[in-house]
Design a protein that fits this description.
Order of helices and strands of chain B: HHHEEHEHEHHHHHEHEEHEHEEEEEEEE
CATH topology of chain A: Rossmann fold
Largest sheet of chain A: 9 strands, mixed
Oligomer: heterodimer
Strand order of the largest sheet of chain A: 5-4-6-7-3-8-9-10-11
Shape of chain B: elongated
CATH superfamily of chain A: P-loop containing nucleotide triphosphate hydrolases
Helix content of chain B: 25-40%
CATH architecture of chain A: 3-Layer(aba) Sandwich
Radius of gyration of chain B: 35 Å
Strand order of the largest sheet of chain B: 11-12-13-14-15-16
Distance between the termini of chain B: 77 Å
Number of domains of chain A: 1
Structural class of chain A: alpha/beta
Number of domains of chain B: 5
Radius of gyration of chain A: 20 Å
Shape of chain A: globular
Chain lengths: 248, 466
């Protein structure tokens, strides 16, 4: 009898520890999230969306990486849906960001504050200052390389203020980081039938490479619309519906 | 040198004791003392040194101006109490100059003219003429103490008028007729019957505060701590006036007479000592304390009205930008004023002119972007020439090479014709296409100029779509 009680107690302790670990793994304290509004994506993320008050990494794919166009548009869609609509501080080395282009993905130029810094370390400094200020909705930093310590500092600043940080990699880096998630976005050839004129709506492949408390995943989706909302691409949504039917 | 004759323009005490005086020919001086040391006069250097010294005197009064070749005027109205009275102020001033090896005489009087006269002809190193005492103090001084031209001074001598007191009895009108208006004016100025305007070196600064150290300080922490105390005091002053600083200058007076300065600016008026200290922390490491700093003066060189935050109908603050302003100030102080900007749309069709960068806290442009126009997410700073191949001049290219990479065009939209603005210098019309390559990457290309039969069209890549 005594042994059984001891075992039960142990099990309860382990359970509590596991819960504690899970909470730690999620990273953000308040647990506030920004849902994508696409059930399959939100279901794959702990808490049902992108953790706010945390740092996320976004990179482009292969040749696209250096340009950072798709990554910037993907971020613009996320930033557009952040509320309240406080300003967004975007730190970069070359001022090649085009506000009218971002506006098409829902991020209003009025909300954008651009900070130009000469190198990565200055950009990280700007990001940290920004992440400490409650006046902002989010901080984006375009970097070419970042250390574990630097991301840890950013993550701590973000947790304290509730401001969300995004590191936009413009050069591939495999260094370990303290960011909560890491995403890779790539352009896909358009969905229009071959031979038909025009480029149509952009198609993206969005990969969740790393996420605390979740498994990597990949989705094909349509580029954000003017409100920053994303949707699964038609073909993928069809397939999902079919598999759900089969399961049902 | 005067008309080819070399003359003495300045002589030290030892030379003067030997009988060498200013204005004497150099040859005469050499007769008196063959081994006299001679330096070429450097008037420009002297003037610069005097100007430096006038700035140095800033610590006693914000209102200083060099006068002639060897004098400095200070308007010490309202400053004397900081130095233990007027007598204390002149004593400190002369003592500090002496420590730098400069022999000076100082006098305080009701008018600049009287102070000038007493300092030069009064006899002592320091003097304070009590209020209303100018008439009596000047009476025994030679007429030259009135800052007269040599001609007028010589005329007075001929008339047998040697002392200023002797002029008091003369009717002003006859003085003016006989000796010129200048004499009457100088006399009036000396006796404070006519005000004499001085134009100060630095603009009027009312909002300032000062700390003097018994022992010169050098350590960075000590300088930072003093800056904080100065900021606390100044911010209290600003609060009393409902004002906030837009620009602050910290002047650090070094023992060796040099002045170091640190200036910060803010995007919105501020009187938050913590925030302002944060901004100064970026600048303080650049200060070279030399052998030590004996005085620090903090001045709000630009201040604006800053009323307590107004509340709206529902008792919520109307628009509170202070947090954002504080952040922007910190970033600007480190990165420079041009590093921070907010994009604002401008009414122009030319892509590179459609966005204007304005200060981060300026009023927002009311223009909204026309969502029907497809624009890239990244716009290259300068369109890049590409090798493009097109079947027909009026069609998008079927392939192109950009930055050594070959792209096959699978889809394309366009053209969107953008004509140059006629009021600008000659530019070419551009036909823009949005093209997608086989990997799905989208580019913004344009063909420059109209089609000409024998000329190969030039293609450029201007931006990247997502």
């Amino acid at each position: 009898m005594a042994k059984a009680a001891q075992k039960r107690e142990q099990a309860a302790k382990l359970d509590a520890l596991r819960r504690q670990l899970a909470a730690l793994e999620q990273g953000n304290r308040g647990g506030a999230v920004l849902p994508f509004g696409v059930p399959v994506i939100d279901a794959a993320l702990p808490g049902g969306g992108l953790a706010l008050g945390a740092v996320h990494e976004v990179e482009g794919a292969a040749a696209e990486e250096e340009d950072g166009a798709v990554a910037a548009a993907f971020l613009a869609g996320i930033l557009a849906r952040l509320s309240p609509a406080r300003p967004v501080l975007w730190c970069l080395k070359r001022p090649d960001l085009h506000a009218p282009g971002l506006a098409l993905f829902g991020l209003k130029p009025q909300r954008l504050i651009l900070a130009r810094a000469p190198n990565d370390s200055e950009i990280l400094w700007v990001m940290e200052e920004g992440l400490r200020s409650a006046a902002l909705a989010a901080v984006v930093g375009e970097i070419t390389g970042v250390s574990m310590t630097a991301t840890r500092r950013l993550q701590l600043a973000a947790e304290n203020s509730g401001v969300t940080g995004f590191l936009l990699h413009r050069e591939s880096s495999t260094a370990a980081s303290s960011a909560v998630t890491r995403w890779r976005v790539a352009a896909l050839p358009g969905s229009l039938t071959p031979g038909e004129p025009g480029v149509g709506r952009a198609q993206w492949q969005v990969e969740l490479l790393r996420c605390r408390g979740a498994v990597p995943a990949m989705w094909k989706m349509e580029g954000c619309d003017a409100t920053g909302s994303v949707s699964l691409s038609a073909a993928m949504a069809d397939r999902l519906a079919l598999s759900q039917q089969a399961a049902g | 040198m005067a008309g080819g004759r070399r003359i003495v323009t300045a002589a030290n005490d030892a030379a003067q004791a030997e009988g060498i005086s200013v204005g004497m020919g150099l040859t005469d001086a050499k007769v008196l003392r063959p081994d006299v040391g001679i330096d070429e006069a450097d008037f420009a250097g002297d003037a610069a040194a005097l100007l430096r010294m006038a700035r140095w005197c800033d610590r006693f009064s914000p209102w200083t101006v060099p006068d002639g070749q060897d004098g400095i005027f200070l308007d010490v109205t309202g400053c004397a109490h900081l130095f233990g009275g007027e007598a204390g102020l002149v004593a400190q001033l002369v003592a500090r100059l002496r420590r730098q090896g400069i022999k000076g005489r100082a006098a305080i009087a009701d008018s600049a003219g009287t102070a000038w006269a007493i300092a030069r002809f009064g006899g002592g190193d320091t003097a304070v003429v009590p209020g209303g005492g100018a008439r009596q103090a000047l009476a025994d001084l030679p007429v030259a103490a009135l800052r007269l031209e040599p001609k007028v001074a010589a005329l007075l001598m001929r008339l047998g008028l040697r002392r200023i007191g002797e002029l008091y009895a003369m009717p002003r009108a006859s003085l003016a007729v006989r000796c010129g208006e200048a004499l009457a004016v100088r006399l009036d100025e000396a006796l404070d019957r006519t005000p004499e305007p001085l134009s100060p070196l630095s603009p009027e600064r009312l909002r300032w505060t000062r700390r003097t150290f018994a022992e010169p300080i050098m350590a960075a922490e000590a300088i930072a701590a003093s800056t904080q105390k100065l900021l606390d005091t100044l911010c209290r002053q600003l609060a009393e006036e409902d004002a906030g600083a837009r620009k602050l200058t910290l002047s650090l007076y070094r023992v060796d007479g040099r002045v170091e300065e640190a200036t910060i600016g803010t995007a919105m008026p501020s009187r938050d000592p913590r925030h302002l200290l944060h901004l100064f922390r970026e600048r303080l490491p650049l200060i070279d304390p030399g052998l030590g700093i004996e005085d620090m003066v903090l001045t709000a060189t630009l201040a604006e009205r800053l009323t307590p935050i107004q509340l709206g109908f529902d008792n919520a603050p109307v628009e509170d930008n202070t947090d954002l302003a504080a952040l922007i100030d910190r970033l600007t102080t480190r990165l420079g004023a041009r590093a921070l900007a907010r994009p604002a749309l401008r009414a122009s069709h030319i892509p590179e002119r459609a966005v204007r960068f304005q200060p981060a806290l300026d009023k927002q442009s009311p223009l909204l972007w026309d969502a029907r126009k497809r624009r890239p997410v990244r716009l290259l700073a300068r369109p890049e020439l590409i090798e493009a191949m097109a079947m027909v001049p009026d069609e998008p290219p079927f392939s192109f090479r950009w930055r050594h990479l070959h792209h096959r065009v699978c889809r394309a939209d366009g053209p969107e014709r953008i004509a140059p603005e006629w009021w600008r210098e000659a530019a070419e019309t551009r036909d823009y296409y949005c093209v997608e390559d086989e990997a799905g990457r989208r580019f913004w290309l344009y063909r420059a100029g109209f089609y000409k039969p024998d000329v190969a069209p030039r293609w450029f890549l201007h931006g990247l779509f997502a």
